[in-house]
Amino acid sequence: MKQEPGEKVLVIGAGYAGLTAAITMASYGYQVAVVEKHETTGGRGRAFSESGFTFDMGPSWYWMPEVAEGFFNRHGRRIGDYLSLVRLDPSYQVVFGKNDVVQLPASFSGICSLFESIEKGAGSKLKIFMREAEYKYQTAMKTYINKPGLHISELCNAEVIQSVLKMDMLQSFRSHASKFFKDERLLRIIEFPILFLGATADKIPAMYSMMNYADMKLGTWYPMGGMVKLSEALTTLAREKGVHFLNGTEVTSLVVINDKVSGVDTNKGFISADIVISGADYHHTDRELLPVQKSNYSEEYWQKRVMAPSCLIYYIGVNRKLPGLLHHNLFFEHDLQQHATAIYKTSTWPSHPLFYLCCPSKTDISVAPEGMENLFYLIPTAPGLADTPEIRERYLKMLLSETELFCGESFEKDIIYSRSYAYSNFIEDYHAFKGNAYGLANTLGQTSFLKPSIRHKKIKNLFFTGQLTVPGPGVPPAILSGEMVAHHILKQKSVKHEIFI
């Protein structure tokens, strides 16, 4: 296929993947429009403001900063011209008990010293562990993550084959980590980055120790003003490239004629297109927007997919400052195994949940009124786990009680804003399959060409991007996913384009 003059590309959804797909296609001369259900762009990376607070709705960790920076660079821009990044130090703290708190310094040498202080010999072992993790990270970024996942042949080259054993694909993460560390606290810190990948540490492949390299070497960053600033930066770049946004416009169906999408029906009328890229929930597009007989996958296929966790979130505004908290706080006081069992085996609410608490007002005074705190609580939960107002209220009280105990002060009476967000909200806002928050589980059986495909099998001008396809969930993978599908289309169209990573 050759590019035709003035071809129109329609992108469904203005999340990270939709935005990078739109920017890339526009950079190569296509007329690009983005149809977005919500009034603002960003998808899960949106924010909202209430009572003087600004709450990031979804992602709160800014890792792998070179991914976003590289994307802007490839479009002749510097990300620093769009947002202000600061590196957090300490990166985060892990609370194992009132008087048992571990703070991770930003410097790797500081982390090694910390590990050594907890377990003799652990500092030098961490250096060895990290050398392996760095190899996995660099190899993945160079060899795996830039593949469109269309066929097994993508992995059948000498470089990939040679890396298989070193990537530890057949060993579990827990088995690998246990060779280096014995202290349970260190193991929890090492295992923390894989908590949302979709399986327990004894099931996730050890290759994901690459996430420890992202954590401990590349660091934890924060865009001043909130994570929403990344969405806003991408939106600004898109507009600079000529992308047109149709916010507040929801796609209700894809119109297919003779195995070609001619456009989409929306709540505001029909929009024609020569190429459609869906950054909406893949299952929603496949089973609800397309005519059933044109679906890429059967409902049976979708029901067999293994999902990563969903979550229960609280956005809390407190009319005072709270002692003891950092920007990122992981409360790991309770038994990890019981919580993991509730998520991955029994699909029940955990009796004593582990949770994450983000307090961005410790870093950024703009996200809360003066003298107040902005709190973002998150409990990982099983996907498809329905909730009720009573459940939400009960778990909020648990989290507040545990936080008050840690801070040594009561503050429930000082809460001036509170909102919860869970399963039903993910479905309402994003048509999220099974109310998922983190996409498909990162198991070997759902990796690369075994993920849902970025292209439709029969409809040649329909493509998919986002967390349910390659490379997978998370902010950096979403950025790469949009760029990847765009470059696949350009290749199909025989448009000369740069290798993107």
CATH architecture of the largest domain: 3-Layer(bba) Sandwich
Give the overall shape, derived from the CA principal axes.
globular
- Class inferred from helices and paired strands: alpha/beta
Total number of β-strand segments? 19
The residue ranges in which pLDDT falls below 50 over 5 or more consecutive positions are none
Number of domains: 3
CATH topology of the largest domain: FAD/NAD(P)-binding domain
CATH top-level class of the largest domain? Alpha Beta
Could you give the order of strands across the largest sheet? 7-6-15-16-17-14-18
Helix content: 25-40%
The share of residues in extended strands comes to 15-25%
Major sheet? 7 strands, mixed
Query: Whole-Å distance between the termini?
Result: 24 Å
DSSP helical segment count: 15
Structure, explained:
33% of the residues lie in helices and 19% in strands. The protein has helices at residues 16-27, 65-74, 108-118, 122-144, 158-163, 173-178, 184-191, 210-216, 228-240, 282-289, 299-303, 336-344, 389-407, 423-430, 475-492; strands spanning 8-12, 31-36, 47-50, 53-56, 85-87, 92-97, 100-104, 221-223, 244-247, 251-256, 261-266, 269-272, 275-278, 310-318, 328-331, 355-358, 373-381, 415-421, 462-464. The protein is globular and about 65 Å long.
